Amino acid sequence: MKIEASPGRASDPSGASKLPRGRPKKGSASGSEHPTRRNLLTATIQLFEEFSAEDLTIEEVLQASGVSKGSLYHHFKDLGELLDEAMLTKFSMGVDEHIALIETVLQTASSQKEVLEGFRTVTRISQRSSLRGQRSFRMNLLLRADREPALAKKLALEQQRLTDALEAQIKRMQLLGWLRSDFNARAGAILIQAYSIGRRVDQIVEDTVSEENWNTLIFQVIEQGLMGLSADESSTALAETPSCDENKTK
């Protein structure tokens, strides 16, 4: 099974070249949005690569986006609302992409083995060392939400949406017999999202765990823990599954 990451995001470390379509935008039940609004969000997310939200000024956003001040205030109440929306969008980008990749697996797989192969590909994509900056951003936003109750409420809704989507996918796989049915699907959704936090914790030291060793442990947790395979079945599958490079997923 060949699964590829979104080309737009793979070439853009900020992930801002292609905003996620999973979360409906303000004033639109379908998730579509005005190009000017999207342009403002994209420019702001890209500016997060250089500036913190506290340091960003409205002039810098307008210059980067090429949008007039009047247009900004037409789409957002003020700079603060734009910054909050941009931070929430960036927070969800990677997870939305991985949810979409898992959905591809569910729609194309015809056996547990193909699900296993798909999970390994998604794991290799989501645990890349190059995503260190995105992991740091997400952790910083969680800490910021602890200090800002209004932001915390918005972030809670966004996090709930992500967890709900993963929980629904896990339940579908449990019904199909591809995952064990004796564990809580929502707990499984939280566990899957926690891997990246652990990866970022390790990246603070010089002698980090290799991507291969880290991913192998995740494979074992998913396959032997969540899928219920034996150690031999998991090891055999590991030897047979092509690497991320061979699948050209990077």
What does this molecule look like?
With 250 residues, the chain is mostly helical. The protein has a single domain, classed as Tetracycline Repressor, domain 2 (Orthogonal Bundle), CATH 1.10.357. Helix content is 67%, strand content 0%. It contains twelve helices and no strands. It has helices at residues 7-10, 35-47, 58-65, 69-75, 79-108, 112-126, 132-147, 149-175, 185-202, 211-226, 231-240, 244-247. α6 (112-126) runs antiparallel to α10 and α7 (132-147) packs across α8 (149-175). The chain is elongated, with a radius of gyration of 19 Å.
Average pLDDT, rounded to a whole number, is 84
Uncertain spans: 6-31, 244-250
- One letter per element, helices H and strands E, the order comes to HHHHHHHHHHHH
CATH architecture group name: Orthogonal Bundle
CATH topology: Tetracycline Repressor, domain 2
The count of DSSP E runs of length 2 or more, i.e. the number of strands, is 0
What CATH first level would be assigned?
A: Mainly Alpha
Q: Choose one word for the global shape.
A: elongated
| Main pleated sheet | none
* Count of distinct structural domains: 1
Tally of helical segments: 12
Percent helix, as a range, is 55-70%
How widely separated are the two ends?
15 Å
Question: Descriptors for this entry?
Answer:
250 residues, 67% helix, 12 helices, mainly alpha, disordered C terminus, Tetracycline Repressor, domain 2, single chain
